[in-house]
Design brief:
mainly alpha, two-stranded antiparallel ribbon
């Protein structure tokens, strides 16, 4: 039956159709194809989530070769949760991309963007689904290489510097991950993640395994832009086409946070990672640095895209902070924020996409009084900003509140102070945009600009994510419920 092959179809479908975009060599046809593929993979993700919600995990042996001899795809509740996030973002963002991307890159390169987009989607889905450590590295590289291509495709020549910077740092991160995988294979003789977990019990206190964990953590920290290894992210988000920034912000860093959680809990083990090596103490220090540094840097920015990039560094800090608390509730808070931040940041970047499409700028100093000319876009950005701050009845509040509860229950009072203080800082940088939009005298350039509004598809995508912010801020049983169930399964 076709349903038995859903795990492999999730990865193979975008992989097969990526080169078809190149064969078509037509921007419109490639957009239609990428949109159709993204919708199909989203439906598959929903079916997989439904299948594993009852606690029945799915394993799929590629080519009939049973693990550990063959490569295995493994779908549990955590995997399905991440698949839903990635595919939901991809499906909505690619549908919104048609006019936005056409306004930012040359028409004869549009089909190359959609090919790279589908390859990136393939890599991200593969990272989440694979049960093989080396296969994980392969999919990380597929996702990374296609990311470099998408970032560098903009008309802005600065995108080449951003892509090259990401390439150098990403290669360093990939090297650390590959060395870690090699060390694990050297001491266990297997690459299957769950088989590795069983065999590591006999050698976990050796220097080789300790080094493997350290190397993997460093590599993932670079890929996930965890402070202070975040240096590629601000330029990548700022100088790439805004749709690319939107997709990266909604998916890429979240996938690597997933990889960190998966290896800590499913491979190295909670006891070894946190109780013996006290990795959580290091992660907690880095997380606190991230939420403070990212928020302070965001306040200093005039570019909205760069502001949101530094905001992402701070929000990644919240996710790592939940992991570092090393409790079931802390892990649930981290997973909930992975979901919520994807919803929040996609809504904010799509708001910026609407502004850039109409006025070809995203500098705050040039957007005074924009609420009078783009009232719906300004209102959507305002609501997304409130969710980013963590105002009640928004998605951002639910995960931040869960994180505060986890900090209280674990006795980390200082973390509560840091979370509250960083939320106050986020008020300041969100207010910069709100003040310019609503309380400044309209700029002459905006008043004299009679260009048409952003396309309808872009607005539809924006409204979907704004409404999602409201829904998941009021109906918490879905997101928070899944996060708590996943955390319970991983910790226990």
């Amino acid at each position: 039956m076709l349903s038995n092959h859903l795990p492999i179809l999730q990865v193979v479908i975008p992989l097969i159709f990526a080169p078809v975009c190149v064969i078509l060599r037509n921007g419109t046809l490639s957009w239609v194809l990428a949109s159709l593929v993204s919708c199909i993979t989203f439906i598959i993700a929903c079916l997989l989530l439904t299948s594993v919600s009852g606690g029945n995990n799915i394993t799929y042996a590629l080519g009939g070769w049973v693990a550990p001899a063959g490569i295995e795809y493994h779908v549990d509740l955590l995997t399905a949760y991440m698949l839903l996030i990635i595919n939901a973002v991809a499906a909505v963002v690619v549908i919104a991309a048609r006019e936005s991307m056409a306004s930012e890159i040359a028409s004869d390169r549009l089909y190359l963007f959609y090919a790279a987009f589908l390859l990136n989607l393939t890599g991200l889905l593969g990272v989440v689904m694979t049960g093989d450590a080396f296969n994980l590295f392969v999919f990380i590289e597929i996702a990374s290489l296609s990311s470099y291509a998408m970032i560098s495709i903009s008309r802005d020549r600065r995108c080449l510097y951003a892509a090259f910077k990401y390439l150098i740092l990403g290669t360093i991160g990939a090297s650390f991950i590959l060395i870690s995988v090699g060390l694990l294979y050297a001491v266990t003789g297997t690459l299957n993640i769950f088989d590795l977990s069983d065999r590591l019990g006999n050698v976990e206190n050796t220097n080789t395994v300790i080094t493997a964990l350290i190397f993997f953590t460093i590599g993932i920290a670079i890929k996930a832009a965890i402070f202070p290894l975040h240096l590629w992210l601000p330029d990548a988000y700022t100088y790439s086409p805004v749709i690319v920034s939107t997709f990266l912000a909604g998916t890429t860093t979240k996938v690597f946070i997933y990889a960190l959680i998966r290896f800590i809990y499913s491979l190295f083990g909670y006891e070894f990672s946190f109780n013996q090596l006290v990795l959580n103490d290091l992660l907690m220090i880095l997380a606190c640095g991230a939420v403070l540094y990212g928020s302070i840097q965001a306040i200093r920015q005039d570019s909205i895209k760069r502001l949101l990039a530094y905001s992402s560094i701070a929000q990644i800090g919240y996710m790592v902070l939940g992991i570092s608390i090393a409790t079931e509730l802390g892990l649930a808070a981290s997973l909930a924020h992975v979901f919520n931040h994807a919803v929040i940041k996609v809504a904010l970047f799509l708001s910026v996409a609407c502004i850039i499409y109409r006025y070809n700028t995203e500098m705050i100093s040039q957007l005074h009084g924009i609420s009078k000319f783009m009232p719906y876009t300004s209102a959507c950005f305002l609501f997304g900003g409130l969710s980013l701050i963590g105002i009640p009845l928004t998605a951002g509040f639910t995960s931040k509140w869960l994180l505060i509860q986890a900090s209280f229950s674990a006795g980390y009072w200082s973390l509560v102070i840091i979370i509250v203080f960083s939320s106050i800082l986020s008020i300041l940088y969100v207010w910069k945009v709100v003040e310019a939009a609503y309380f400044k005298t309209p700029a002459v350039e905006l008043s004299n600009n009679n260009t048409q509004n952003a396309p309808r598809l872009l607005y539809i995508a924006l409204f979907i994510f704004v409404l999602a912010n409201l829904y998941f801020g009021t109906e918490t049983s879905v997101n928070i419920g899944f996060a708590k169930d996943i955390a319970y399964g991983l910790v226990n």
